[in-house]
Amino acid sequence: MKVLWLTAHPEPRSLNGSLHRDGVRFLEEQGHEIRSSDLYAMKFNPVVTADDFSHAEGERLIVGHAAQEAVRQGALAPDITAEHEKLSWADTLIVQFPLWWYGMPAILKGWFDRVFVGGFAFGVHDAQGRQLRYGEGALAGKRAMVVVSAGAREASLGPRGINGALDDLLFPLQHGTLWYAGIDVVPPLLVHGADRMDAAAYACHANALRVRLKDLPHTEPLPFRHQNGGDYDEDLVLRPELSPHITGLPAHYRIES
């Protein structure tokens, strides 16, 4: 594999920092190629501005249009271009972060805002003019795995847990961002009890990470529905005969009969 490991934690001596180093070391020992984007260490700027697109001062900024034009003209900011080069090189993306207020740290959200721009991560059309997204598109053929730490107990992030099911919490990232851009997403790895972890618990989680990384090339991805596979109507609403008694996020997973 050619792996881009994207990580976002401000403390290199943290649990996340240790798992990142252990995971990279394991992949290298297995013969894989690794590049990392450690966003805090890089002091990555997470804020979208007109400077990202070499946009003329004084003109109204329409972000989507400006981004596509900048991609077409090769005029994106150098730090965005550097991340594009890493993503183009990689066939696998690891996204690692602590769960803060039910989402990603702001610096990681900003990385997606600035890097997953139209003309690079989406905005591709087929010969019939259909947008190729949700399983197709610019980044199709790659795969990703989310590694997320949380202070919560494992059961509290389950189907009936007070914190909500993990796949529901990660739906905006796994489905609305990665799958939207065409990337196959394998089930996430939860590192639970992060605030109360002793050496024995860390060893258990580190071993679980190694197992998941070893199996990553062969792990079945989450069974998200393709936009253009016939499951959705012209308004991109799931056809009524499919999973008729299921609504909300679970409806967008294929159910094998």
From TrEMBL:
> Could you list the residue ranges that cross the membrane?
none
Keyword list, A-Z: Oxidoreductase
- Xref: Pfam families: Flavodoxin_2
List the SUPFAM superfamilies hit by this protein, alphabetically: Flavoproteins
Q: What Gene3D superfamilies would the database entry show?
A: 3.40.50.360
Any one Gene Ontology MF annotation carried by this entry is: NAD(P)H dehydrogenase (quinone) activity
Q: InterPro entries in the record, alphabetically?
A: Flavodoxin_fold, Flavoprotein-like_sf, NAD(P)H_dehydrogenase_qn
Q: Does the keyword Oxidoreductase apply?
A: yes
Q: Which GO terms describe its cellular component?
A: cytosol
Residues of the Flavodoxin-like fold domain: 1-210
**Where are the coiled-coil regions?**
none
Record has Oxidoreductase as a keyword: yes
Membership in a protein family: Belongs to the NAD(P)H dehydrogenase (quinone) family.
Question: What is the designated name of this protein?
Answer: NAD(P)H-dependent oxidoreductase
Q: Which organism is it from?
A: Streptomyces muensis
Lineage, highest ranks first: Bacteria, Bacillati, Actinomycetota, Actinomycetes, Kitasatosporales
